[in-house]
Amino acid sequence: DQQVKQNSPSLSVQEGRISILNCDYTNSMFDYFLWYKKYPAEGPTFLISISSIKDKNEDGRFTVFLNKSAKHLSLHIVPSQPGDSAVYFCAASALGSGAGSYQLTFGKGTKLSVIP
Amino acid sequence: DAGVIQSPRHEVTEMGQEVTLRCKPISGHDYLFWYRQTMMRGLELLIYFNNNVPIDDSGMPEDRFSAKMPNASFSTLKIQPSEPRDSAVYFCASSSASDRGRKTQYFGPGTRLLVL
Q1: Residue A108: its chain B contacts at CB < 8 A?
Q2: Does the distance separating the beta carbons of A103 and B104 come in below 8 Å?
Q3: Between chains, do B103 and A109 touch, taking CB under 8 Å as contact?
Q4: Which residues contact B9 (CB under 8 A, 6 or more apart)?
Q5: Which helix (H) or strand (E) holds B44?
Q6: Minimal CA–CA distance to A72: which of A20, A36, A114?
Q7: What is the largest CA-CA distance in chain A?
Q8: B46 in helix, strand or coil?
Q9: A94 to A42, A56, A110, B58, B77: CA distances (angstroms)
Q10: Which end of chain A is more exposed for a tag (fewer CB within 10 A), N or C?
Q11: Close Cβ partners of B93 (under 8 Å, ≥ 6 residues apart)
C-alpha cells in the first residue's frame, strides 16, 4: 500500500517556465513533508520541506505548497533551469518526536527534464 | 563535514557470495537508515537505528540480510548468501533528533551492487 504517491513518472518543461511536481499521501498521521532531488549516480539531496502547520514554504526558486484537506503537496520551480533536470522524490514523516517518527516514507519519484 | 560516507561505491559479485556494505554517518547524528533502490519498488527502507539500536527492521527482505551498528560512527549491511535479485543501489542516510524537529535525512552516494 503506497502511502506517498507521485503519479507522474516524468515531466518535461521548457527552460524558463514553471515546473510543478505533485505528490499525494494517504496517511493522516503525516505532519512533515520533504522534497529530495537526485542526480544519476548520486544519493538524494534534501531540497525543501514543510510542516503541516504551514501551507507554503519558499526557498529561492523552489516553493512547496501543502493542502492538508486534499492530502496533496506540490513543488514549484520557477524559473526552471537545465540543471534542475533530476528525479524528485516526495517524502513524509509522522507526527511526534519518538524514534518511530523519524522514519520517512518516500514516493517513487518524478523525473524532471528541463529542455534548453 | 564530509557527509555520509559509503563503501564500496560499486560491488560486483557472484551469486552465493557474502556482500558487506559499509556506512559512516555524519558525526553527531543519532539516526542511521539503510535503503534499497530498484526500478520496480523505488526507494525502500530496510532498517534504521537510533543511538546504535535497531528500531525497525521490518523492511529487511529476508534472513539473508543483516545489519549492525557497533558504534555511532559505523554501520554495516550484510547479505549472505547474495542472489541476483539483490542487485540494486543501497543507500545509507543519517539524521539528527536535535535538528529542530525537521527530521531531514542526509544520504550517502550509494553502493551499486550487481550480483551475477
Answers
A1: 42-43
A2: no
A3: no
A4: B109, B110, B111, B112
A5: strand B42-50
A6: A20
A7: 45
A8: strand
A9: 27, 19, 22, 17, 26
A10: N
A11: A43, B4, B32, B33, B35, B105, B106, B107, B108
Distance CA A70, CA A83 (A): 31
Q: Is B91 within 8 Å of chain A by CB?
A: yes
The cell numbers describing A15, all together, are 527552460
Count of H-run helices and E-run strands, chain B: 0, 11
Whether the CB-CB separation of A106 and B42 falls below 8 Å is answered with yes
Which tens digit of pLDDT belongs to each residue from B47-100? 999 999 999 999 998 899 999 999 999 999 999 999 999 999 999 999 987 766
DSSP B64-87: TEEEEEEETTEEEEEESS--GGG-
Q: Which of chain B's residues have a Cβ under 8 Å away from the Cβ of A46?
A: 104-106
Strand partners, A69: none
So what's the pLDDT on residue A15? 97
Query: How many contacts, defined by CB atoms under 8 Å, are there between A and B?
Result: 59
User: Pick from B31, B45, B107: which is nearest to A44 by CB?
Assistant: B107
Query: CA nearest B35: which of A73, A89, A113, A112?
Result: A89
